Amino acid sequence: MEQLLDNFYSNLLYEIADNLINVSPVDTGNYITSFEVTQGRPTAETTSEGKPRGQPWEPFAEEGRAKLKAQIASLPEVTVADKVYFINRAEYAKLVETYSSAPFTHVANIMPIIIQDAAQRSL
Model-level pTM? Predict the structure, then answer.
């Protein structure tokens, strides 16, 4: 049973990460690569200043996804008592959430589906 729960928590974090990346916009690539998952204090904001605009979605999505998955893999064992935070460190993250694709709102709205998918992958 304990192994099932461990698998579930891990799968849940990966499902959340995938869904955040899947609905994130790309212009310079800064936003989609600025997600962070942590059990502690997040790092400083990032900026898109000086980065070229109109970049393709796919390479930055893969970079953002790989960074999140590496962070999840490096977390200590996650239990029901632990708090894990998903944040975006882009300086304009609140604007994306308010006026663009709203990745965090999207994930919150489909959380029952995400939980169900993580549970099925844990069996």
Answer: 0.89
